[in-house]
Write a structure and sequence with these properties.
homodimer; alpha/beta; four-stranded mixed β-sheet
Chain lengths: 351, 351
């Protein structure tokens, strides 16, 4: 079956009858519900509250937020329309101040807005632009998936970390997109999902999304990955990336570096699946990427249950840096970069 | 200050007015309460329910359980006393069938029982034997602590895993005993405690017990250890052992192996603190040690909160194997074994 012809089983975002519907990821996996948004403010609330998460998914949601607002305000006079749109851009930009894809998507939408004067015509263009952005992300992920799937043998047991799936993107996913593409190419694939403390994206989201599609998945604690590798139970590791430096160093969810070190010891391929938009050529190497330190409450308990003693000090780095030397290959929409380094990454942009 | 003269801040087990009192570890860290036991059946319930855990602590509790039962039954005729004691041994032996120290302690108590006929005299001997066993464990831990502390520099930041402290033993602890001994020797020590998913012994017990004694402790997720090592924030790793093979391979809490691999990469010493009773010379190497697979519920949630989707497959190995080649040194009550191997471990028993 061709990847593009398969209807996605998990539709994180969908545009229906002029409204944006998004899976409320705060409720997963215990409840599966769509949240319906009819304006920019509602989308901003959904982003801030993490009903939608994952950088590409946030970017798409913000673009739809602008489209929604334009539709609603299109009967106003041009000046009033313009004011309403300014407010919408501001509200969305403030919803997740560190999300790079959010600003990138808003910049794209602002360029479309600047091209017209008639509110009705501009609103139509903005809806088209949001849908185009959504479909472009989906196609990028499918291209990443095809590139990576070529290196996934039949029967592969793939270890992944965090959630890099349909739930984090317009659909298909990056690292999980590779799994989906390999499955779509007729390969038997099974996934080992590390739970990904502290926020448990692996246990909550990856396990749920793979179960939905009938892809076999086994959940483990993050600590069990080394044991499974030592017993020969892992054929490859595929993860996503939050940001890739010019030399190929990868910033990704805390715990990624540990998996790369373990994979090297056990001679297991360690792959990173990410779009070119994740490569930040303005950053020379991983040491220059700041690591976000998050709050203690994520570590001392979960969902109202506290298990650590009051007053204990906590270190909660959200990301770590995997040196390029530990990356067997990078999967991008422009193909595979084996043993990534500065020269090979530069060459990627010229392909 | 001399280690032996310091009154322990955490008294896991205490013998008071002919009763056994033990910290109910199920309630930690939110509540600190002693459970009082007056017979073998009550002690068996406490062991089964994990109110007391940690192999050495379980062994001591079982010995006290026998002593309690003997005290209570000592006014009976010899035949009835003997029957009551048989029942007590059976009840305690069934409380945690995989705990090696439990059987070892019960065997010691049975030998004492066999030496006398008069219930009153035997009961007195059994109380003495239980107290001797308790104090011997405490002294063993203090000797391990002294041996290890010599290698801990002033200002050391020590990463540890699981709980190997006073709560797991008669007192002082094994890996945490090294920390206590270094502190008692006047060194400034701080601890990084990995939370130790799935059962969270690091977050719940190690963090609590160190906080009680004013030893600085920082709690992290298991996944964050590699990042901290890469940033130069860890000076050494000290862990305990559930079982050590004749060649020095170490079976310990899941996640230990990962810490050893990371420590080797960063040239950080990786130490194992354990009594000689943990060395099983009947097992040639780690590959021969069976790894207990525990239930899925530990991984899919915690304390009534479920975060993984229903029906997801789970792998939950409770232990992993760290090859001897990754162990910088073994700390025992007979001193330090650098770069342990079969010959050096054999020699240890002749010291």
């Amino acid at each position: 079956m061709n990847a593009s012809s398969r209807a996605p089983a998990v539709e994180t975002l969908r545009w229906r009858d002029g409204r944006l519907e998004l899976i409320d990821q705060r409720l997963l996996p215990s409840r599966f519900e769509y949240l319906s948004c009819s304006g920019a403010a509602e989308v901003a609330v959904a982003i801030r509250a993490m009903a939608v998460r994952g950088a590409p998914a946030i970017g798409c949601a913000a673009a739809f937020g602008i489209a929604l607002e334009a539709q609603r305000e299109k009967h106003r006079a041009p000046a009033q329309f313009s004011d309403a749109m300014d407010t919408a851009f501001k509200t969305l930009a403030e919803s997740r101040p560190t999300a790079v894809n959010l600003f990138w998507a808003l910049d794209r939408m602002r360029a479309v807005l600047a091209q017209g004067r008639d509110p009705k015509a501009v609103a139509e263009k903005l809806v088209e632009a949001a849908l185009a952005l959504f479909h472009a992300d989906l196609e990028t992920n499918r291209a990443i998936g095809r590139a990576g799937a070529a290196l996934v043998p039949d029967g592969a047991r793939v270890l992944t970390h965090c959630n890099t799936g349909a739930l984090a993107t317009a659909g298909h996913g990056t690292a999980l997109g590779v799994v989906r593409s390999a499955r779509d190419a007729g390969k038997r694939i099974s996934v080992i999902a590390s739970e990904t403390r502290p926020y448990l994206q692996g246990a909550r989201l990856t396990a749920w999304e793979l179960t939905q599609e009938g892809i076999p998945v086994t959940l483990i604690t993050d600590s069990a990955a080394g044991h499974l590798m030592s017993r020969g139970a892992v054929d490859m590791v595929v993860v996503g990336a939050d940001r890739i430096a010019a030399n190929g160093d990868v910033a990704n969810k805390i715990g990624t570096y540990t998996l790369a070190v373990l994979a090297e010891r056990h001679r297991i391929p360690f792959y990173v699946a990410a779009p070119l938009s994740s490569i930040d050529t303005s950053v020379a190497d991983g040491a220059s990427i700041p690591i976000e330190e998050r709050g203690a409450a994520e570590v001392t308990g979960y969902a109202g249950v506290r298990w650590a003693p009051e007053g204990v000090a906590v270190a909660n780095p959200a990301f770590d840096i995997t040196p390029a030397a530990l990356v067997s290959a990078l999967f991008t929409e422009k193909g595979v970069v084996e043993r990534p380094d500065a020269a090979r990454i530069r060459a990627l942009f010229d392909r």
